[in-house]
């Protein structure tokens, strides 16, 4: 989940010349007030004041962190200690910045000037109201959907990460204007994180606005889309009008991921994006999981091209991150889809699909019953004006983070600069360790 994935993605998007088809928005960090629509004040207060030093030296702070899923915690499923959400330097700032990206993207859509908005650094779908979970500290998706609801009557959330989008589902169990649909790997035994998202999980009571599509390891493109296409089409028929779509594009569902096994190709993953774009409703694309970073960057770059209607070649262009793609032969599409699944697997998925279609029939009947639905606000708060030059940052269109480092270093080579930086920081680090 390191931010380097996003820098690589941006560098590849730039190398393919895709930035010319987009506006880059200046993004202000989210505020604590923005985060309160998704998280408790107690949890946010802890996040704001938590540092590695306070976690290490203050027992009360450490205990509070553990209660909220931060630092070393006991995994309820396995009984083992984990550190999925470590207490890192500048944690609060990190949370505000990636959430600010998703919030700005949502406001751009709500302002009516854009049809597609993208924040590949977002998509942290596991964070819940009172705590961190699964590498996710703050749930930027919930914050973004709340912003969209200020303008749109109904928002559809679709999750193609390999893991169940539990945090988003839980946040909207009582919200009739939001439907969540998650396609994810599921072992039925609770061992695969987060252990939730069975086919019978349909939301609070019998609302049927939470839809879960559990998939086996090794599903692959063909069987995945035998599920995704028909289910998504029926969802769009039933939950209408879906005025906006949020698609969490977690790339850990790709073949070659370090911890998952759904085995999608880049084209197969992007086919989900193509399908949802075809409905012609405003769409917010967010990142998520993905633990083989060159595969992640390949996928999100290709999906950026899909989102703006561009075709790009398979050969990865020369650019600052070129050598990261050596293991995939410098090709964007490093894995070709395999056809065919076992009869047992196909029959199992047919049963799952029939059950889900029956659930959608129940939802259709419920939505046909007359009811009073709260209308969205007439004007979204702080909507982005596309004519505001202070918000559209054209100056950075052709510059990726590596190039910006070169510029800021002046005439120095990057290697020389980093050596100089190391010599500067080392004495300070020694002094801090002595003071500690």
Automatic annotation (TrEMBL):
<comment type="similarity">
    <text>Belongs to the histone deacetylase family. HD Type 1 subfamily.</text>
</comment>
<keyword id="KW-0378">Hydrolase</keyword>
<dbReference type="InterPro" id="IPR023801">
    <property type="entry name" value="His_deacetylse_dom"/>
</dbReference>
<keyword id="KW-0156">Chromatin regulator</keyword>
<dbReference type="GO" id="GO:0005634">
    <property type="term" value="C:nucleus"/>
</dbReference>
<dbReference type="GO" id="GO:0141221">
    <property type="term" value="F:histone deacetylase activity, hydrolytic mechanism"/>
</dbReference>
<keyword id="KW-0805">Transcription regulation</keyword>
<protein>
    <recommendedName>
        <fullName>Histone deacetylase</fullName>
        <ecNumber>3.5.1.98</ecNumber>
    </recommendedName>
</protein>
<dbReference type="InterPro" id="IPR000286">
    <property type="entry name" value="HDACs"/>
</dbReference>
<dbReference type="InterPro" id="IPR023696">
    <property type="entry name" value="Ureohydrolase_dom_sf"/>
</dbReference>
<feature type="binding site">
    <location>
        <position position="252"/>
    </location>
    <ligand>
        <name>a divalent metal cation</name>
    </ligand>
</feature>
<dbReference type="InterPro" id="IPR037138">
    <property type="entry name" value="His_deacetylse_dom_sf"/>
</dbReference>
<feature type="binding site">
    <location>
        <position position="291"/>
    </location>
    <ligand>
        <name>substrate</name>
    </ligand>
</feature>
<keyword id="KW-0479">Metal-binding</keyword>
<keyword id="KW-0804">Transcription</keyword>
<dbReference type="Pfam" id="PF00850">
    <property type="entry name" value="Hist_deacetyl"/>
</dbReference>
<feature type="domain" description="Histone deacetylase">
    <location>
        <begin position="2"/>
        <end position="305"/>
    </location>
</feature>
<feature type="binding site">
    <location>
        <position position="163"/>
    </location>
    <ligand>
        <name>a divalent metal cation</name>
    </ligand>
</feature>
<feature type="active site" description="Proton acceptor">
    <location>
        <position position="126"/>
    </location>
</feature>
<dbReference type="InterPro" id="IPR003084">
    <property type="entry name" value="HDAC_I/II"/>
</dbReference>
<feature type="binding site">
    <location>
        <position position="134"/>
    </location>
    <ligand>
        <name>substrate</name>
    </ligand>
</feature>
<feature type="binding site">
    <location>
        <position position="161"/>
    </location>
    <ligand>
        <name>a divalent metal cation</name>
    </ligand>
</feature>
<feature type="binding site">
    <location>
        <position position="84"/>
    </location>
    <ligand>
        <name>substrate</name>
    </ligand>
</feature>
<keyword id="KW-0539">Nucleus</keyword>
